[in-house]
Specification:
With about 650 residues, the protein is an alpha+beta fold. Among the domains are: about 200 residues, Heat Shock Protein 90, CATH 3.30.565.10; about 160 residues, Ribosomal Protein S5, domain 2 (2-Layer Sandwich). The chain is about 40% helix and about 20% strand. It has 19 helices and 24 strands. The longest helix has about 35 residues. The chain is globular. The structure holds 3-[3-(1H-pyrrolo[2,3-b]pyridin-5-yl)phenyl]propanoic acid. The site of 3-[3-(1H-pyrrolo[2,3-b]pyridin-5-yl)phenyl]propanoic acid has 13 residues, from α3.
């Protein structure tokens, strides 16, 4: 195959090495950016931005501009030192070209330039270059603007000087277009997904401003947080009631930068997020273990010392000390070790002791110096310990009961005849009348119906013991066969698909959110393993001559009317106010027949977003909840929890 290696010309051994490296990336993108799906596409942006974050961590950059261009190419510009453009003495090539074409080259440049590196995979911008149709880099350095263009990773010519910089101005600007030969299909950058990631990066990289502009829609947003992770904690708690001011500590131990911010609220759940070199390590790791150990030990020590726990009292368990806790731990390490490329878990053993020590000391001092806060925190742990005890008893009761109940399934469950769970579906339906239509309309061979009466309990605001005493919840648990919380066991699942079917109105969306909250809090595995779905009932029925059409959204409806033109006037149109208004046959045709229905699979795309959304929707503060339901009630297709 003929290859353009650039006008520089001679095709030396080094060029071959470079080409082999780039070719490896193109052949196995999964190894470098995690695949060729939409998630991997976003990974390309992160990889480029990570390089600018590295400059920020080195104290050399405080502004990063990210632009999604109208043609879906992406520009990332920073005001760092600029990638060096001089000739590398050994490699006899400009450093810029090496950074752009040699895997893992970026961080190893510039001698003492880098203390820590943000790039999780560390493959650097060369992998992005290899996976791009074209890529252009502009470097402002030494008073000049330098520029080089690449196609599929191969330089299209030497570095050119295209202008002068303002005095002392430096920086790097990269624009790339992802390769449509590699990312084949329907791809799109999602503003929210990018914004979410940049918000987190801005929280954990003090002093950085990240500006995101989407030129396709003209949406933009800027992230800068004066208070770093302290602001992050306040942000997470903005709809909760805090028990004390944020506790913050930052310290360097044996070259590891350690920063923790924490605050207790009156919530029942735990929201802890861990970062290693600005990467959100969603699977936790040694920094999380260190944080948890420090908190449990410090609170127990304090409670004993203050005489709140007597010598004979048992210590608080870890769980007792985590109820209502919001915390961020962010570490910066020279050589972070992760469990694997996709599983994001920090493995450096020494970090556990370092975090435990730094936080233990700071949190201990905080409790000593702030007796009112200390009392509120310990009180919270006491309540939580008692509730946990009550919940354990209640759960044992439910488990024992449900062992019996599994022989006698809940009375209102209309079960299916099929016994292979993989073939079975459970429809959770709101209300008895909709339940009636669903029971008549279903294929009873593989579809079971469980009608829930009215609103199930708001599980965000109640503890497990109370939740388990709710009849609707109990019926749900025993129908599913998995048990709940810590004793959840997926192998007991009686239905491969669990489908929530509610009305397409505001009430329906509220009930759906309540059911989703329940699953999210107590059966997250069910969601993670892809068993939870949302049914899509239509909003309108449009009958004309012998034709029958259904519209599932308002825009669907408008499109259909437009397509019908003048005929629309004669059509017989009805709007379904609820599932109950459909006769069993209509319900089957539009919503339950696997051949024609659309199901939305529920995914927990980002635990942090989901947690905040659930807290906002289900927590105590009412105004943000109302706002959300109003804005999103009809955007069923974009359901994003
Ligand atoms: C190598 C060495 C130096 C900076 C960089 C690379 C650098 C890379 C990227 C990638 C995106 N933005 C960047 N900014 C800088 C240090 C150069 C020096 O010491 O002046």
């Amino acid at each position: 195959m003929a290859r353009n290696v650039g006008p520089a010309g001679s095709y030396g051994a080094k060029d071959i090495q470079v080409l082999e490296g780039l070719e490896a990336v193109r052949r196995r993108p999964g190894m470098y950016v995690g695949g060729t799906d939409n998630k991997a596409l976003h990974h390309l942006v992160y990889e480029v931005v990570d390089n600018s974050i590295d400059e920020a961590l080195a104290g050399a950059c405080d502004l990063i501009d990210v632009i999604i261009n109208p043609d879906s190419s992406v520009t990332v510009e920073d005001d760092g030192r600029g990638i060096p453009v001089g000739i590398h003495p050994e490699k006899k090539k400009p450093a810029l070209e090496i950074v752009m074409t040699v895997l893992h080259a970026g961080a190893k440049f510039g001698g003492d330039g880098y203390k820590v590196s943000g790039g999780l995979h560390g493959v650097g911008v060369s992998a992005v270059n290899a996976l791009s149709e074209w890529c252009e880099v502009e470097v402002k350095r030494d008073g000049k603007i330098h520029r080089q263009r690449y196609e599929r990773g191969v330089p299209m010519g030497p570095i050119e000087v295209i202008g002068k910089t303002a005095k002392g101005e430096t920086g790097t600007k990269t624009t790339y277009m992802y390769d449509h030969e590699i990312f084949v299909g329907d791809f799109d950058y999602r503003f929210e997904t990018l914004a979410q990631r940049f918000r987190e990066m801005a929280f954990v990289t003090r002093g950085i401003t990240i500006h995101l502009l989407d030129k396709r829609s003209d949406r933009e947003t800027t992230f800068y947080f004066e208070g770093g992770i302290t602001s992050f904690v306040r942000f997470l708690n903005r709809n909760r009631t805090a028990l004390h001011p944020v506790v913050h500590v930052e310290k360097e131990v044996e070259g590891t930068g350690i920063e923790v911010a924490l605050q207790y609220t009156d919530a029942y759940s735990e929201s802890v997020y861990c970062f290693a070199n600005t990467i959100n390590t969603i699977d936790g790791g040694t920094h999380l273990t260190g944080l948890r150990a420090a908190i449990t030990r410090t609170i127990n020590d304090y409670a004993h010392k203050a005489g709140i726990l007597k010598e004979t009292d048992p210590n608080f368990s870890g769980d007792d000390t985590r109820e209502g806790l919001t915390a961020i731990v962010s570490i910066k390490h020279r050589d972070p070790q992760f469990e694997s490329q996709t599983k994001v878990k920090l493995m450096n053993a020494e970090v556990q002791t370092q975090v435990q020590q730094v936080l233990g000391e700071a949190f201990g001092t905080f409790l000593e110096e702030n007796p009112r806060a200390a009392k509120a925190i310990v009180q919270k742990c006491l309540t939580s310990a008692r509730a946990r005890d009550a919940a354990r008893k209640a759960r044992d009761l439910v488990i024992r009961k449900s062992a019996l109940e599994s022989l006698t399934l809940p009375g209102k469950l209309a079960d299916c005849s099929e016994r292979d769970p993989n073939k079975c579906e459970l429809y959770i339906v709101e209300g008895d009348s909709a339940g009636g239509s669903a029971k008549q309309g279903r294929d009873r061979h593989f579809q079971a119906i469980l009608p829930l009466r009215g609103k199930i309990l708001n599980t965000e605001r109640a503890r497990l013991d109370k939740i388990l005493s709710n009849n609707e919840v109990r019926a749900l648990i025993s129908a599913l066969g998995t048990s709940i919380g810590e004793s959840f066991d997926l192998s007991g699942l009686r239905y491969g698909r669990v489908i929530i079917m509610t009305d397409a109105d505001v009430d329906g969306s509220h009930i759906r959110t309540l059911i989703l909250t329940f699953f999210f809090r107590y059966m997250p595995k069910l969601i993670e393993e892809g068993h939870l779905f949302i049914a899509q009932p239509p909003l309108y029925r449009i009958a004309y001559a012998k034709k029958l059409l259904y519209a599932y959204t308002d825009s669907d409806y408008e499109r259909i009317l437009k397509e019908m033109g003048p005929k629309a006037k004669k059509a017989n149109i009805s709007r379904f106010k609820g599932l109950g208004e459909m006769n069993p046959e209509q319900l089957w045709d539009t919503t339950m027949d696997p051949k024609t229905r659309t199901l939305l699979q529920v995914t927990v795309e980002d635990v942090a977003v989901a947690d905040r959304t659930f807290n906002m929707l289900m927590g105590a503060a009412v105004p943000p909840r109302r706002r959300f339901i109003q804005t999103h009630a009809h955007e069923v297709r974009n359901l994003d929890i």
